[in-house]
Structures are given as C-alpha cells and as structure tokens.
C-alpha cells in the first residue's frame, strides 16, 4: 500500500483529520497560525467549519493530506509564510526576505502512526510547494535531541523529521514547546 499526498481541497477529509471532537469548539481545524488570532478565537462551531471549508477552496488550500487507498490518514499545514501569523511572530525569526512557505503542523490518525505517514507528508508538502514556485520551505519543529515528545505537542514535528527530508537548521527561535526549544529548519527549493 502506498501513501499519496494531495492538496487539502476536500473539507470532509480535513475535518476527519483536524476537526474538533466537540462541534461547538473554538479549537483546532489547524487555524491558529493560518488566520489572525482575533478571528481564530472568535470562530466557533459551524462558523469555524465554514471558514475551513472556504480555505479548502482557496488557492493554495490550507495544507496537504496523506491518503492510504483513498482514506485520509494524515495532515500537514502548509502555506506561504506571508499569509500566516508566522509573518508577524516575534519568536520565529525571518532568515531573509525570500517568500518562503511555512510547514507547521502534522497530524496522523491513530492506527496509522509509525507507518511513514509523517515522512510522506513532509515529502508531499515539499513537492507541492516546489510545484507552486516556492523558493524555499521552512518548518519550526522541536529540537528534542531524541527524547520522547508528548503526542499533543508533537504536531510541530521534530528536528530529525525535517533533517530526514533534507532540511537544515537555519536559525534558533525564541519559541519553546513542551520544554523543548523550537528551531527554524529550511529547505531551499531553487
């Protein structure tokens, strides 16, 4: 069985992977870095789902999805940095003025973990960004030095995941997640 990664244009698949368990919730759907904080906090329930549905129809969509035999099994948030909160984030530095794309969230469904889905997602995100003309792609994973990362906080990925895909450390950040420093990892696509 092979994993195929496609742009996240199907709302129901996005909802399966990152939709909140509680329909009235004001969390997840992977919006916290994608839209402004004020809008993110205000969206609840159906309004939150509608906003994600709208993003799925935009170009580019809000990320990529890994499929195993047409079943959605993994998610990665991906978008030009200029249109995310990373454009204004004081803890995540700007390395240069390139119009880079950010890759900031991974989610693999239970039952499909430890099968290479995260690796397929990062490879698929890189391929999609390259296809769309991105000059570089960067992520902001934890530098956990091989220590176990709480699954709830593992959504940013690990330095080793990014290194395995050819990314190199471009900068330290001021961000810490679950006690681990986050680093800025970058892959030049030019």
Sum up the structure in keywords.
single chain, alpha+beta, seven-stranded mixed β-sheet
Provide an overview of this structure:
It comes from Microbacterium sufflavum. The chain is an alpha+beta fold and 190 residues long. It has five helices and seven strands, in the order E-H-H-H-E-E-E-H-E-H-E-E. A hairpin with a 2-residue loop joins strand 2 and strand 3. The mean pLDDT is 93.
Task: Give the arrangement of secondary structure elements.
Elements: E1 3-7, H1 11-18, H2 37-42, H3 45-56, E2 63-68, E3 71-80, E4 101-108, H4 117-131, E5 136-139, H5 159-164, E6 168-177, E7 180-188
Parallel strand pairs: 4-5
Antiparallel strand pairs: 1-2, 2-3, 3-4, 5-7, 6-7
Q: TL;DR of this structure?
A:
It is globular, with a radius of gyration of 15 Å. The chain has helices spanning 11-18, 37-42, 45-56, 117-131, 159-164, and strands at residues 3-7, 63-68, 71-80, 101-108, 136-139, 168-177, 180-188. The chain is an alpha+beta fold and 190 residues long.
Structural class: alpha+beta
Tell me about the largest β-sheet.
7 strands, mixed
Model regions low in confidence, pLDDT < 50 over at least 5 residues: none
- Main sheet: strand order: 1-2-3-4-5-7-6
How much of the sequence lies in strands comes to 25-35%
Q: Using DSSP, what is the number of strands?
A: 7
- The 3D shape can be described as globular
Rounded to the nearest angstrom, the distance between the terminal CA atoms is 32 Å
Q: How many alpha or pi helices?
A: 5
Order of helices and strands: EHHHEEEHEHEE
Helix content: 10-25%
Query: Rg, please?
Result: 15 Å
- What is the averaged pLDDT score? 93
């Amino acid at each position: 069985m092979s994993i195929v990664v496609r742009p996240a244009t199907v709302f129901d698949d996005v909802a399966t992977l990152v939709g909140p368990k509680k329909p009235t919730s004001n969390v997840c759907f992977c919006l916290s870095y994608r839209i402004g904080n004020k809008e993110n906090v205000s969206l609840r329930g159906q309004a939150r789902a509608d906003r994600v549905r709208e993003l799925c129809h935009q170009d580019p969509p809000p990320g990529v999805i890994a499929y195993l035999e047409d079943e959605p099994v993994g998610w990665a948030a991906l978008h030009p940095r200029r249109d995310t909160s990373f454009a204004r984030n004081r803890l995540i530095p700007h390395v240069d003025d390139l119009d880079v794309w950010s890759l900031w969230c991974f989610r693999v469904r239970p039952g499909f973990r430890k099968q290479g889905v995260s690796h397929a997602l990062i490879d698929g995100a890189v391929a999609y960004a390259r296809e769309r003309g991105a000059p570089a792609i960067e992520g902001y994973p934890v530098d956990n030095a091989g220590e176990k990362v709480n699954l709830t906080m593992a959504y940013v990925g690990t330095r080793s995941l990014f290194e395995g895909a050819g990314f190199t450390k471009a900068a330290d950040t001021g961000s810490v997640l679950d006690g681990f420093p986050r680093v800025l990892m970058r892959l030049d696509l030019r």
